[in-house]
Amino acid sequence: MNAVGQCVDLVSTSNFLGFAPQHIFYLVENADNYYINIQIPKRSNPRILRDLHIPNSELKGVQRSINNKILTKMPVGQNVHSYVAGRSVLTAAREFCPGKAVLKLDIRDFFPSISTRRVHGFLNSVGFKSKCCFILSKLTTMNDRLAQGAPTSPMLSNLLVGRLDEQLSSLAASWDIKYLRYSDDLFFYKDKNFNYPRLSEIVSNIVNNAGFEINVEKTKYHPIRRPRLTLGLLTHGDKPKIPGPQRRKYRSLFFKASRDVHWAEQKIDLLRGTLEWYKCVYGRNDTYNQYRTILENVSRLKIHDSYRSK
Q1: d(CA 243, CA 234)
Q2: 192 Cβ partners below 8 Å, 6+ apart?
Q3: CB–CB of 76/162 below 8 Å?
């Protein structure tokens, strides 16, 4: 029996998630108080700060259980590339190669636009009883909105806009165009140029009717074969590539790591993440092997550090 059949009330829902009913009851009653607010620079503009609301360890543990036992078991459309195993920025970017015409639209305040009521309504629509819907929706929202920082928010956002994805996919098919979504970014693409102003207008109307709003300032159209960045990658060639300035930054990082083991030890997580991302995009080429060797040498040199410093 799946979650819909097992989660009926407080006791059954708590047992399914693996927590005591008293614990779940207390969190439901006080969920809004179990978040801390932090600010991080936006990737697109580091001078602008983005608010994140991070649940504490008690609430986060319950949210992870909801994510693993309930949300990730639900199907997500094939045109969604965000927050789904086996799909990523890279799988989305590959769709735009080699240099297809791409229209990108951005949903304004995506997570905050999804209310507790909408979460409740979605859960009810897939078969959960009212009591369970109330419990799960309270455990996964803060101040009546999806919290940007909760582990359940990404998957919930995918599921709650499933109907919108279907509408936009049907619209794209009627234009002989393809559609995909990565989080709050909507993409329409084709191997030749198309009437993007008219399509943008229609998409905006559909998105508005679904209870969201397009951030018009972020709408961009990339004609075929023109140099452009899409989801942080160059997609006008045969394959996605990391932009030149970013590649030079990577080269600088690993050069410094090869010369300063102390610095490399402090930046080890950054170096490992950079190496993994480079491999995802380019595979195990010569540059990757060079970077990997530098990283391996950092571990070896650490053993002899006390001798080298004397």
Answers
A1: 6
A2: 101, 224
A3: yes
Count other C-beta atoms under 10 Å from residue 284's C-beta. 10
What 3-state DSSP class applies to 49?
Answer: strand
Look-up of token digits 């006080």: 30
Full-model pTM: 0.90
For 208-245, give the DSSP string: HHTT--B-GGG-EEE-TT---EETTEE-SSSS-B--HH
Tens digits of residue pLDDT in 125-184: 999 999 999 999 999 999 999 999 999 999 999 999 999 999 999 999 999 999 999 999
Q: List all residues 6 or more positions away from 162 whose beta carbon is below 8 Å from its beta carbon.
A: 76, 77
With bands split at pLDDT 50, 70 and 90, how would you rate the model's confidence at 39?
confident
Residue 25's Cα: distance from chain center in Å? Answer: 30
Both tokens assigned to 39: 């600010």
For residue 162, how many other CB atoms are within 10 A of its CB? 15
Q: Strand locations in 8-88, DSSP E?
A: 35-41, 49-55
